[in-house]
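Researcher: Structure prediction, please.
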Amino acid sequence: MKRIALMGLMGLMGLMGLMGCSKSVSSEQQAMEAAQEYYEALQKGDYEFFLNGRIHMDSIPDSFREQLLVSFKQFMRQQEEAHQGVVSFTPSRVQMDSTLQVMQVFLMVNYADSTHEEIIVPMIEENGQWKMK
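Model: Predicted structure follows.
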């Protein structure tokens, strides 16, 4: 009797393990979520987080890093002047580009003046983390 109960318990544990695996997030979904997170940080003024979301940014000179941070701030200021600002960045689709070895994430930029624009954010997986190219 104990053997049957033990086998049943082991089977149940195995089934639960399989169910946990089935809920894994696809590479496409991971890349899409990462791109949205980086652009939402840009919208909120967290330019450091946005910059660190780009591939190989840990090895750039400090002077170049500062220039990039200033350019991000200027870009958002331009969006404010041209469109009354950005309301949101919404992912619309993702597509693997096997030739370039990148995941192309399509984000819809929704502006305060009710206009929209679709941008493509090339994403690369680096050490298990999705980064912008």
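Model: The two ends are 59 Å apart (CA to CA).
Researcher: Thanks, that helps.
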